[in-house]
Amino acid sequence: MTQGYKPVRDSGTFSYAAHAAVVAVDPEVGEVEILDYVIVEDGGVLVNPMVVDGQIYGGLAQGIGTALYEEMPFDNSGQPLATTLADYLLPGATEVPAARLDHMETPSPYTQFGVKGIGEGGAIAPPAAIANAVNDALRPLGVELMQSPITPHRVVAAVLAARTSGRSAA
Amino acid sequence: MKPVPFSYERPRDLNSALSMLAASRGSAKIIAGGQSLGPMLNLRLVQPELVVDISGLAELKRAEIRGGELVLGALVTHADIEDGRTADVTRGAMPGVAANIAYRAVRNRGTIGGSLSHADPAADWISALAALGARVTLRSLAGVRSMAIEAFVVGALESALDAGEIVEAVHVPARATSAHWGYAKSCRKTGEFAHAIGALLVDPAAAAARVVIGAIDTAPIVVTDAAELFGGRIAADFKQRFDARAADALLVKAGIDDAAQRHIHVSVLKRAVFEAAA
Amino acid sequence: MTAIVLNVNRRAVEVQAEPRTSLADFVRDKLDLTGTHLGCEHGVCGACTVLLDGVPARSCITYAVACEGADVTTIEGLDEDEVMAELRAAFTREHALQCGYCTPGMLVSARDLVLRLPDADERRIRVGLSGNLCRCTGYVGIVRAVQSVIAARRGRNIGPQADGGRIHLGPAGSGRAMSGHDDQPLPTAGLELAAASDSVAPDVIPDFTPANVLDQSFTLPYMPAKVFAMFADIKGIAACLPGVSLTAPPSPERVEGAIRVRLGPIVAAFEGAARVERDPAALTGRIIGIGTDRRSHSATQGDIRYRLVPLDGGEATAVELSIGYTLTGMLAQIGRPGLVRDLAKRLVADFAGNLDRQMSGAPPREVAPAELSGLSIISDVLRARVARILGRVFAGRGGAE
Question: Are C304 and C179 in the same domain?
């Protein structure tokens, strides 16, 4: 027999999180390295903390992919241009940092045990956190990137454009 | 995906391999480790009628020092070089390059001759070996010929190999004790193809330098007398004398019209220069 | 089918398989060893990593027939392996897998790291695992698990495996076959002998916006009027384009033909038609073409515009070319557009050289690579196919594969 559980109010129970990234950007080569990454997540009462951590770390890796690597380009007739894993880059073990993770446990009033949804909860915030960190690093050069993934070519092109337009303080 | 059906032959020696290649009149492909050809076969980008597997040929698995230079058979793998199963005359330069090619599982089968034959501009050996001043010997039923790496690579995936000809060996000259080596590449992620490679062999004692700018979507830029990149003179202060504008001019001349791309190439070459000076 | 003899998990097996059967498909489909997983099937994801003569190799891009006589160890063959027992326990403890798809390949690579690099720090472990993609765990538990096994072995003073696990030179798994193994060449299935002669030329050639545009120019030492006249000679122009052959007599407005291009080992033969427009007053022209390559299921559209500009007081001509093209299908979807641009540049350079030679009365360059000589190579392939089919029929082993 399989038994399920459904909360009385089942419009979703959301967990909340804050992500902080420290990055190093090489403006000449365009490489971005994540030096430190901290996540604090409030998933309500944690039923199995090990599985919750796994979901958040896994989500982080996907979010890093969105921020720095993964792109599905199309040409102007709709032709997909990245159809292999040699073109569509997934982060590997060297692209994902050993992130630090902490939890708050604010119980949900709407569920038994006070649990909240946590599935791959780490995936949403990284593009914003990383892009903000990159832009903070490049601020003295007068550069702000508004497109993900933040590729070496996009970084260098933006740095050169800022230099040419004289926006750079350096 | 799976490859289209092909016939398969495992020749007993190099001569029978060359005969099969000649008889196929262009419808055969040589396979060694298969680390470049395998993906292309699986994606059906390449659809040969016949695959001639040379991976078992002992005569292409030699590695020896002959007349002061290292002669590596075409079937020597990246891992063979990385692990030191072959001698090294480059004082660590070649093992260092080998260790950073793709991934270990690929290096255990991928061969130096296969990598050169494939002539992918983004691959390591065509740039590194050009900087080291290496040569290749090519063999066909008509005989043997030898040429510098920079002459061998003609363009993207395009080598000087004639139909019926295969890479037999790579000849690497010994690196002088006074010669500095620098090799840098930028890859979007570890093990990926590089989008910029800089390689140089600088010998201030001999006032000589070879510089390579690679991974430029076509044959690498090889400067065999690189004084122009160091203010006209190669000396101990070559790091200070490196002229980024001269490097940029070479890239413009090679038809790289994207300024950001050129900037990345020059910066990666600068890294290699700094590494050589360190 | 060929009989392939291998040692899989210390057991000698002899199984019939096609030469194109990957080692991964061989162990999965023929031997039911489904612990080896297939992810990308082009050597990137690492899920299919197995041990070949004791060292890790990608079984998706290694053909079983090429491993004849070799020792293959899949995840199933490592049940009793002491390092793998430690790694399995560590993976369980550290929550190093969620869906488990990458795990067999990850464990094989991890075992190699543990044996080969007993001093590896976290960075080296990450580099060592970088050829195995995981979409679930963020690698946190995997790296911790490998770190803990390495630390435990270091505590027991276990040194590195000698020689990186290999003594012989050359590709892992090679050189174990009986020497001189010599199968009958097998006929290739699905030959399309008639394909080349069916007309695929479309009736209407539409305008389009090219995805890629390449501007090239070259100079010819002839007056613009003479060059413009030369450009009207479609047969002559076609003879200067490497790999181009005409499939029907051209009219001034329309041409049907094929172009065979080669990018390294990739060969495509696009068959189709083009419409030709010319403006004698402005000394400009345009060729809009469309073609398909049946082998790769790829198609291309091209829009070549030329403009002739007088040089040296009208004695010479600058030919300004704008080459626009759009590729669709498999050939377009490998995202290395730079390689195609390099090919286009080389084709234009050959075209310019041939044009110059033709106008000065010399034949197109004889030393052009045989592969690019279009018609001759196509007929070579056809000849080989006919011979092969006849061989098959007479040998009475049709469809042997």
Answer: no
